[in-house]
Amino acid sequence: AARGPVPEHSRAEIARAAVALADEGGLAAVTMRSVAAAIGTGPASLYRYVATRDEILELMIDEAGGEYRFGPPATGEPAPLGELRAVDPLSGLLELARQARQIYLRHPWLIELPAVGQLPGPNAIAYTEQVLAVLDGTSLTSAARLETVGIFTGLVRLLAQTEADQRRTGQQLADWQGALAGYLVAAVA
């Protein structure tokens, strides 16, 4: 706005501070008071930038979504670490899934937040556009591509949730896969 003092802080700064707090102490560590302290202001001043804690959580989700690295389709040269370079849709989706897994591992609190309910921020929109671009060479209709984005995103989140649950219970992935395989063989028999 043209009136009032020049803002001393940005929503991006608030998001980064809140992400750091959550990475260190979980979502419970993210309060209006703690975020304000992290950016060096008082809690009342924080309300000049965000109206509620839920708004901070939305900023955090989008901040984490900014960690994806998108690149153009492969040109035959190896992609820099963390950049998406895919020749075919499957490779592109797998690369996005690997990046998502790493993001969930860095920010386990993401899984605790609702997957629906908030409007997508700029980074979520960029992610959706990237998945749609990966699917561009397929014969899927526009509606089917959007469904694929939803299914893919949900599946990746579910796999990250499963891995997080296994870590919390101290179960190793290979042990779990072996137990599941044994159970399924017995169930089929």
State the main characteristics.
8 helices; mainly alpha; 189 residues; single chain
Descriptive notes:
- The chain is built from eight helices and no strands.
- With 189 residues, the protein is mainly α.
- The N and C termini lie far apart (69 Å).
- The mean pLDDT is 87.
What's the quick description here?
With 189 residues, the protein is an all-alpha fold.
> Which structural class do you get from the secondary structure elements?
mainly alpha
From the N-terminal CA to the C-terminal CA, the straight-line distance is 69 Å
User: Uncertain regions: pLDDT < 50 for 5+ in a row?
Assistant: none
Alpha-carbon Rg, integer: 20 Å
Instruction: Kindly report the oligomeric state of this protein.
Output: single chain
Q: Approximately how much helix is present in the residues?
A: 55-70%
What about the largest sheet?
none
Whole-number average pLDDT? 87
H/E topology pattern: HHHHHHHH
Number of helices: 8
β-sheet strand percentage: under 5%
* Total beta-strand segments: 0
Shape: flat
List the helices and strands and how they pair.
Layout: H1 11-25, H2 32-39, H3 43-46, H4 53-65, H5 89-106, H6 122-134, H7 142-169, H8 173-188
Helix pairs in contact: 1-2, 1-4, 4-6, 5-7
